[in-house]
């Protein structure tokens, strides 16, 4: 009994010592390199989050329907769902993944950034909730002048 | 890099304007510049990470980031510092801290 207790304690301690490292400063470029090489959104999302079913209608994407400057298209993402990570994908550039955000426990799901789009395409946001479920939203953005030829 | 942090209705809203050409392989070839883009950004408050971003070259040039966190949950108050740092594809780093207003 003593021995078993000691062993399980050891296992917990080992897990605890590993966790802080993975919770702070996760570089998704290193942990999921294939997601950054994928050309299409579907492929990139699968590489990052797997095949799980997505829940739609919970995330709001705020993006222009018609973007005049494809070099800097403002994209806003918002939801009341508590999430640990949010990833942004598009189908306008050679590769799909743009950015993966991670929020701390105090994080509010209200993010904004600007991306490049060289042509009209769909923008997809996928978020992983603290409940372990995946949430997604898609919006089409029309681009009149492509950005940067990226 | 410019950083702004403002406490509003219990949430601290942080705005970052980073400085990088964000040129990926294809863009660098076309413009005949070197590949250079930010790969990872981190924001800390009182030594605790509140936000992170793993980034690729399809963010706009000199990328803009905005995020928010709950001040109470993060144990942050006015006058505390938000520290932002990043590393780019060439290993170059940058750092900036700003007081929460």
How many E strands of chain B?
7
- Name of the level-1 CATH class of chain B: Mainly Beta
CATH topology type of chain B = Immunoglobulin-like
Low-confidence stretches of chain B: none
- Ends of chain A: how far apart? 63 Å
CATH superfamily of chain B: Immunoglobulins
Q: Which structural category fits the helices and strands of chain B?
A: mainly beta
Sheet bearing the most strands of chain B, described? 4 strands, antiparallel
- Beta strand count of chain A: 9
| Spatial strand sequence of the major β-sheet of chain B | 4-3-6-7
What does it look like?
The complex is a heterodimer of chains A (150) and B (101). Chain A has four helices and nine strands, in the order ααααβββββββββ. By secondary structure, chain A is of the alpha+beta class. Chain A has one domain: Immunoglobulin-like. Chain A is globular, with a radius of gyration of 19 Å. Chain B has a single domain, classed as Immunoglobulins (Immunoglobulin-like), CATH 2.60.40.10. Helices cover 11% and strands 51% of the residues of chain B. Chain B is elongated. The two termini of chain B are 18 Å apart. Chains A and B meet through strand 6 and strand 7 of A and helix 1, strand 3, strand 4, strand 5 and helix 2 of B. Strand 7 of chain A pairs antiparallel with strand 5 of chain B.
Features:
heterodimer; A: 150 residues; alpha+beta; Immunoglobulin-like; six-stranded mixed β-sheet; three-stranded antiparallel β-sheet; 41% strand; B: 101 residues; mainly beta; four-stranded antiparallel β-sheet; 2 helices
